[in-house]
Design a protein that fits this description.
2 domains; 12 helices; two-stranded antiparallel sheet; glycosyltransferase; Spore Coat Polysaccharide Biosynthesis Protein SpsA, Chain A; 12 strands; transferase; Glycosyltransferase 2-like domain-containing protein; ten-stranded mixed β-sheet; glycosyltransferase activity; alpha/beta
């Protein structure tokens, strides 16, 4: 039977970008079976304009901003519950312009049942490459996009497996998603929810494939234009992901010393402010992070209790928002 596919576009205060994005999706050589917009309580005219000009687009309007993970999960639950059922959901950022063969390029990689996610070849508006797959730089967990900033000369024209693909334009097999679970909504408002989901899919034995025929342009960071704010959210997501994934040994012996060096090298820079904020937020949400970690590290119950106890004390340290104090305490805890 033909694959049934839905495209989900998450919208938030970007009326100037949303209509062109949707129009490009509607011009696909292989049309989607549904085009769904999930709006995260936009204050502009985004949804009114879509409703007035594109009646074929279904709209779900959230009463508040649920972030990327929460907003996309609203759309995914809606698609999973639909009848007749869908096989694939494609997540797409609002500040993108997909090429006519984009969707066909994604779906061509789903022939094998172990393929759970397919990623796109993404370029900046000026034509430079933005994403041809992705990797994590260990032990800091920094995301590195393959091909980033390069001129596209055909060097990434072969499909290949990666352990990480960006969620900006990502196709997901719904059966695999139901098995491993939807996005972790603790990654609010954005960043690393896609890293976390990719890790869980790979951990469950699935493949993630980069599809060079699925091409598009992406403005990037349209919803968060202030650079310090963007970096703060990025590091907050990174810390949540690492605290969920890494073993206690990895945290103490690899991550902590590398993080100390990374922080020291960014003293008196805008990123220092972002890191300071991210550490404070991570400490404030440690109960939730530990709860998310526990099912993934079933033999660490006693260690988890100890972490919670010590991190409660960390939160009482004067000047706790200074990442150096937090890092020193964390190293003592994990060392």
């Amino acid at each position: 039977m033909p694959v049934r596919v839905a495209v989900i576009v998450l919208s938030w205060n970007a009326a100037d970008a949303l209509l062109p994005c949707l129009a490009a999706v509607l011009r696909q050589s292989r049309p989607s079976d549904k085009l769904l917009v999930v709006d995260n309580a936009s204050a502009d005219a985004s949804i009114a304009q879509v409703a007035a000009t594109l009646p074929e687009v279904e709209i779900l309007a959230n009463s508040r901003n649920l972030g990327f993970a929460g907003g996309m999960n609203v759309g995914l639950r809606h698609i999973i519950a639909a009848s007749p059922s869908f096989d694939v959901a494609v997540l797409l950022n609002q500040d993108t312009l997909v090429d006519p063969g984009w969707l066909a390029g994604l779906l061509a990689q789903f022939d094998e049942p172990q393929v759970a996610a397919v990623g796109s070849k993404i370029r900046y508006p000026d034509g430079r490459l933005q994403h041809a797959g992705a990797r994590l730089e260990w032990p800091l967990g920094l995301v590195r996009h393959v091909g980033w900033g390069e001129t596209d000369q055909g060097q990434y024209e072969s499909p290949r497996d990666y352990a990480l693909l960006t969620g900006a334009a990502l196709a997901l097999r719904l059966a695999a998603l139901v098995e491993v679970g939807l996005f972790d909504e603790g990654f609010w408002p954005a960043y690393y929810e896609d890293v976390d989901l990719c890790w869980r899919l790979v951990r469950a034995g699935y493949r993630l494939v980069y599809a060079p025929a699925a091409t598009l342009a992406h403005q990037e960071s349209h919803s968060t234009r202030d650079e310090v704010t963007r970096m703060a959210y990025y590091h907050q997501g990174r810390l949540r992901y690492l605290l969920k994934r890494l073993s206690l040994t990895e945290l103490s012996e690899a991550f902590a010393p590398a993080e100390a060096s990374y922080c020291a090298a960014r003293r008196a820079t805008p990123e220092e402010r972002a890191l300071r904020w991210a550490y404070a937020q991570t400490l404030a949400h440690m109960h939730d992070i530990v709860a998310a970690r526990m099912p993934l590290h079933l033999n660490e119950d006693a260690a988890h209790a100890h972490i919670v106890s010590v991190l409660h004390r960390l939160q009482q340290v004067p000047g706790q928002t200074h990442y150096h104090a937090a890092l020193t305490s964390a190293q003592q805890l994990l060392g």
